[in-house]
Each structure stands twice: as structure tokens, then as C-alpha cells.
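Human: Here is a favour to ask of a fellow structure person. Comparing notes only helps if you start from a blank page. Give me a protein, with the fold worked out from its sequence. Please set it down just below, with no commentary around it:

Assistant:
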Amino acid sequence: MANDDSGGPGLSRRSFLLTAVTAPAALAAARAPGAAPGPKAPDVVFVNGKVITMDAAGTIASAVAVTGGFVTAVGSTEMVRALAGAGTRVVDLGGKAVVPGFVDAHTHPMETAMMAASWVDGRYPKNKTVARVVQNVADWIKSKNVPRGVWVYVACSSASQNKFEEKRLPTKAELDAVAPDNPVVLANGAHMCVLNGAALRALGIRKGNATLKKGGTVQLDPATGEPTGVVTDGMADIPLSLTPEMLVSYYTKEIQRIWNRYGFTSVMAITPDSAVPVLQAVAANKGGNLPRPTIRYTISVWKGANGATMPADLGVFRMPAGSDASRFRFAGIKLWVDGENDARTGLMRDCYLGHFATDPGGDKGSLVTPQEGCNRFAVLAGRNGVFPMLHASGDSAMDIGLTACEELVKSGAKAPLFRLEHFGDFQVSPDQLRRAAALVPQGLRINVQPTWMLNLVRSDYENMGKKRAETGFNFRTLIDAGLEPSAGSDVTGIYPENVNPFLGIYAVVTRDSDDGLFLPRQAVSVVEALKMWTIWAAKALGEEKVKGSIEVGKYGDLAVLSDDPLTIPADKLKSVTVLKTVLGGDVVYSAA
């Protein structure tokens, strides 16, 4: 077969025809180069492009055929075009690069849609001072004519205590001054918030009340026992102003509008248990009166930060019979071992540098779920045939998470896989790398947030010091250890721009950060970076047989790009945009 397609670094320069009569049933028969097309013509063919398949061989092709939502041919334009019938749609790619539809392996889509619609903006660098944020709260209440007693939510960037000029967060007293009659929640990232007096009263938090019902921790003044307003990991205890109608809109319109724009066709949707009934109703509406989502939801449910109230039978979270399993799949459950290093609540072996008024006691971060609880949670997931997701930010929390994974393997509970979230984002030690590598054959998958390099390296230096901070974001080391890190945006709405995968791809390839060039020796190749958002992300969902590469038998999910990431200068990667997003052969987003 003649080679008429050019490749890129790390990819083979070859093109061959792969066809299947049906997919995935005839996949095995269709793998041989030159296999004859089946009797049914493709629904659509995409021709005249540079198809970066991300398959194991690193194949570069120029055309793809999709039938019944699945890829049925990959090869040269001439061969694939020849498969078209009278009713086949032909999409000319105009020479553009095509990659598999991106997979966001860790994100919070409901919260992102909610925060975009109804939260006061207190994010840095748009807001550089505490005074500016407090004024924003006052202006919001006045301009929106917010009724007395209605909750007000404020989004501040992670590590705001480092970033604001005052080097602190707004206080309960400052929020009381501008919102005496409205409960206010000011989020410092996703793991710490400041509540004003009205919010504390609404939640029943009083003197000496150090813990909330669902795992949150209340900071108390050591001298008086009165709550300071600071709450860590209280996400399950804070009420949200959501209606079923709003959630339906999020899951059928807003979420896909955000993610499809950036080439995503799948998300690992980390979902509060309270939202599951609405998501189940959306899933059950196949052929009904609701729009069919143009994103594939793989769902992980959380119920309280420490997972203590997770039911023994997880069947309550499964999608209804008859749902489209390609769009809606309950796959995992999540808990938090600790907080997060950017809020100085990630549980560390050694103390953080300096001290902030919002720091937990002991200056080593916060333990949310002790070892016994993590072990029990992991085994619970395995016994229900789903995977556990353990959030572990600090190095001490990663020790606990690794032990829980080891205990899961020993228990014999057959989890399809098990995950550590944020592994190595902020810090990792050689002994933890060894333990993690040993668990990979048993089913360990790790998830990382590469785009945080553009947000948090400077604060990591300030909070942990040079030696510890420089063990974080070591993606070259993680890959060399065989961990195949999957990328997740972890977007909650705090950094909405982080949905864009090309910001993260740019960061891991160039090693640019918010503190300049950061550990250039940890750079990865563009091909490896793409794997983090495609095939490795699919593996982290247990879905690599149907997602993550453009191969016969997999979903016809594609992203058409403005530029070829394999050939453009590395510093241009962050400017790549998505021209079209294709789900099952259908164009669900077009930049035009």
C-alpha cells in the first residue's frame, strides 16, 4: 500500500485501511489491512485530513469512516472515499489535523455550570485585593436586589491567601459588614471557604462546634471557641440554590456547550449524590422531550467528603434500564483523604512554611478520611463492581491512599480499576512512585491536573519551599515510571479557562508556569501530552476499548483542530483551537 500521509514526532508514517461490517462485533475480522468493506455504506466519511489516531502503532491516516456511531474505517482518503454510498455524508477536512475526541478524566461539570451562572466573581488576577472582593459582594447584593436571607456565593481562585495583596482571605467580619442579612459563602478554591455570621447561623454552627454533619471541619478561635468563619472540605454541608429544572438544563445544554467547544466528547463527571436523580431522569429520557446530550457522561458519585454515609448497595446510583449506556454510565465513587495544598489543607508529612490565620491546627494540613475509612470505602466500591476515586493531595495523604489501594487488592474485591486523584500534582516521593508502579498491573490509574502549573507553582514555592515544590508536576517522571497519567481539568468554575486542554498540553510540553520556566527536565513530548487527554484518560475511565483513539470499533468521536500540534512550535500550542467536535460521527460543535 502506498504511503500518502505524513506523520510527526513519535508517530509512524503509514496509512492503512481498517474496515468493519458492524462495530464492534466485526472488529476482529476488520483489523487486517485491506479488509473489504461491508455491505452497508458509512453514514459519514471524513476525508483529506491528518488523522492522528493515537493507536498503539502511532498511525497517521488521512480519512475516517463512521457507521452507526462507530469508526468502521481508517486509512487514506482514496480508500475511505471509495466506501461512500449515495446517502453517505462527506466531510472534507481541508488538510486539518484530527485527534480523538478529548476525555476529561476528572471534572465537576454541574458545579462549573452553576458557578458560571450565579456566583460573584472574586478570582485573581481580575481581583487583586481583599477589599475589591468584598466590594464585589456589596455591589452584587445591591445590583441584583438580593432578598434578605438568600444565599450569596463568591468564587475566589485557589491559594487566594497567597495571591491577594493583603496575603489573606476576606474575614467573617468583612463579609458581615456588607451582607448582614444574607448568608455568604466565599470559596478559596474548592476545599476552603469563609462563611459570614448569617451563613454560620443558617447552618447551625455555634461556639465549640468543630465538625459539620457530612465531614466539613469548622475552624474555632482557640481563645474563645467561637467559629472564625473558616470551613474546610465542607462542600457537602453547604446548601446550593439549585432546582431540578436548573440541573436538567445543565446536563442537557450547558455542560456540553462548555466542553464540546474544546473538543471534549467524554467527561468523568464527579457528581454529588443529590444531583443523581435528575441525571438519571435525563438518562431515562431517551427519545423523549429533552435534548440528547452531546457529551458522554461517565459518572462518579460523592456523598459527604469522608464517604462515611455512602450506602453499602450502590445500585441506587446506577442509570435506569434502557438508558443509552454510551452516554450515561455510573462507574465510580469518590472521597477525600485530605484537603488541597493550594489551600494549605493538603495533608503533608512536614509543616507548611509560615502561617496563615486560615491554616488548620498543626500546620500540616487536614485529614478528612482516616486510613480505616479509606480502606473500607475502596473495598465497598470493589464489591459493587465500580472503582474508588481517592483524592489525595499532600504526601501524607498519598501514603494513606496508596495503602487503601493495596488493601483493596488484598481484599479480593474485584474493582475494575482504582484511582488516586492528583497523584504527584503537588509533591511525590521516590517510595510513593515505587508503590504506585507496583500497583499499576493490579489496576491503579492516576489522574493529574497539568493546567494547574499555570495557576499554582508560585504559591507552591511559597507554601512548601523549593525542595518539596519541585517534586510536584513531575510528569516526565510519572510517565517514565509507567503510570500513564490521565489529565483532568478538575474544573469547578474556579478556573473556567482550565477546561481548554491545549493550555495543559502547552504547560507540560513547554514547562511554562505562573512562576516562569519550571523544571524543564520534566517536559513531555506532544504525543505523550495528547495521550494524557485521550487514550490514557480513557484507560482511567476503564473505557479504552471504545474511546481514546481513532480505531475501528471505537466510537466515532473526533476533534478537528485549527493547527497541527505535531508540527507547530511548542509555544503556539496554547493557541490551538477546535474547529469541529464530532460525537459518533455527528458534528456537535462547529467554530463557524
